[in-house]
Sequence to fold (126 residues):
Amino acid sequence: MIKKVISTKNAPAAIGPYSQAIEVSNMIFVSGQIPVNPETGKIDSEDITGQTMQSFTNLRAVLAEAGCSIENVVKTTVFLADMSLFEGMNEVYKKQFTGNFPARSAVAVKALPKGSLVEIEAIAFK
Fold:
């Protein structure tokens, strides 16, 4: 099995010692995407809906670089700064997929990088 690093300038660069995604066989493991605009390096939105949309934009960019799309996602994990943000995140989340939804976990954490409200990681197949 060969491990391939996936990297794109259309999503924020890794802010630590990790890759945007790793491809192994026909599986793509996408690192958590926070709502940083890759052009500015900043979080443009202060609310959960805007931040969730940007996180999905970043996720889509990494998936596209790997040669697949959001429809290839089989599992996501959503990290929230507070569970009170769940409903707003969920409203955006459900509009991202057509047909069957992937498996998902959603958890609240103490804090997220750069003060973001949401981070989304995914596992997809090719």
Q: What stands out?
A: The domain at 3-125 is CATH 3.30.1330.40 (60s Ribosomal Protein L30; Chain: A;). The radius of gyration is 14 Å. The chain has one domain: 3-125.
